[in-house]
Amino acid sequence: MRLPRQLEALARLLTYILCHRPDEFGLVLSEEGFVPIKTLLQALAGEPGWGVVRRRHLEEIAALSQPRVLEIQEDRIRGLIPGPARLRRPVTAPPALLYLAISPKAHLRVWEEGLQAPSGQELLMAATPEMARKLGKRRGAEVLVTIQAQAATRKGTAFQGYGESLWLTAAVPREFLQLPAPDLKETAKPVKPAKPKSLPGTVEMNFSQFFQEAARVKGKLKGEAAWKTGAKAARKKKREP
Fold this sequence. Notes:
The chain is α+β, with helices and mostly antiparallel strands. The chain has helices spanning 5-19, 37-45, 55-64, 104-113, 129-137, 149-154, 184-187, 207-239, and strands spanning 35-36, 70-73, 76-79, 88-91, 97-102, 115-116, 123-126, 143-148, 160-162, 166-169, 171-172, 177-178.
């Protein structure tokens, strides 16, 4: 079955991304060739004219194309024809500098501890600041980290190339990172004043509530006095000839 023209153009783009050059779009495929659908849609959103693509469009292509060009498994997707791209290169010497954008939330932790990939994942670094910022924009990562990659390699950090401009590693020690100092005023959590403890055998008094109640009673008494004054004036008027 022939795909509608718009879906056919999208299918060609997806084949290029998933089967030829995922690195151009900042994507790294798993060993089986899969990439999270959410990550793929984020990459497409950064390309002019493709920000309207949704999961349903991918599902239509996977279901209607003959022969099948896409395979979707739960929240993952991969290209089938001519097959997933194999871009991992042997561990080798990286460029002198690599770049990675981090979120403001992670800024203080990276400043103190260095870069560490989440469990089961890898750090994705770019060969240029521009590419690193582009990748970071998808995740709200605005703080650019410069990595002294060759110096880190000499101290035992292994970098693996992916495609032409991406690099992967598990962690980078703090001593090989250059990044702006975090704003401690923004990262520090406000400290709530401690509530004073009551002494044993004492009763806490809520003076604010006490004075409010006293004011209410005083106003009520004033109201009664005004009523009595009005009654006296009425009786006096009746006695007048």
